[in-house]
Each structure stands twice: as structure tokens, then as C-alpha cells.
Amino acid sequence: MRIIKRILTILVVLIVVLVALAYVLPRKVMVARSIEIDAPAGQVFAKVNGLKAGADWSPWLSRDPEVKLTYSGPDTGVGSKLEWTSEHPQVGNGKQEIVESVPNERVVTALDFGEMGTAMAAFTLVEASGKTTITWDLDTDMGMNPIGRYMGLMMDRWVGSDYEKGLANLKAMVEEG
Asked: Which residue, of 87, 118, 145, 174, has the greatest Cβ tally within 10 A?
């Protein structure tokens, strides 16, 4: 009986320490990836300023050929919206809306993943000598949930590789014309 009591005490202390440690972890998470595209900013901007065009190079939508996409609002710019539903766990369900659009410079989208939370994503374009460096970033708040805070430690690995794939798809699409 004494040994069981010690084991339970150790488990409770361990759980309390892990929960307390979670609140020391960063609440905000930022993931960013960049690539240089051999094209002027206007050509790159055209592929990120509309959610329909984004579906052509998305690293996620190709994972589920059965994904259901619903577009609303304008085709490009602020107010352009996409809602998707999928049974595939790496695609899931969500909504995206362009909330800021500065021609040839920046596009910002608000993402809503339902129970999984919300995030902001942005494309920032910098043109030099006819080439464009595009940076795709994700900014999210992991909230007060201790499990969410631990998951935040993995976001760069999980999302970063998808961003790299998406940017490579975008580069190929733009450079091939």
C-alpha cells in the first residue's frame, strides 16, 4: 500500500510540474519560410492574392482529392473567402479569408480551424533585380491550454515543411508560366 501511495504521489507531482512548465512555454508561435522566385512581384502577387489561385499550389489540398472547397466574396483581394471540408486528418475543416492586400507587397489571411483555433498567415513580397523573395508566415496564439503550449513547440516542424513544399510549388508554377 505504501508503494502505491508513493507512485501516485510521484505521478501527481510530475503532472503538476508538467502543467506548470507549460505556462512557461511561449504562448505565441510564429513559423516563417522564404523562397526566391525568378519573376517580378506582380506575377507572384497574382498567385497569392486569390484563394482560388492558391488552391493550385497548396501543399494541403492535394492530399485529399475528395476535399470540398467553397469560395465566396471577390475572386481576389480583401474579402476573398475559402471554406474547406475534408475527412483527411492532415487537411481537416476550416475557413480562410483575405483581410489585407497591398498590391505586389503583402497579403494577409485570417484562418479559422474551428476547435483547433485561429491564426493569421501572411505573404510578404520583396522584389529586387526582377526576382521576388516571398516569405510565408503563420502567427498564432496557443492560448492557455497546456497541451496547446506543448504543441506550439512542434509547429515549426509540422507547418514549416508544408510551407517549404507550398513555396516550391508556387515557384515552379510562376517560373514555368
From this structure: 174
Do 164 and 154 contact (CB within 8 A), yes or no?
A: no
Asked whether 41 and 104 are in contact (CB, 8 A), the reply is yes
pLDDT tens track for 22-44: 777 788 889 999 999 999 999 99
Domains and CATH numbers, the chain: 27-176 (3.30.530.20)
pTM of the model: 0.84
Is 115:132 a contact under the CB 8 Å cutoff? no
- What is the C-alpha to C-alpha distance for residues 48 and 105, in angstroms, rounded to an integer? 11
Q: How far apart are CA 71 and CA 87, in angstroms?
A: 19
| Contact present, 110 and 122 (Cβ < 8 Å) | no
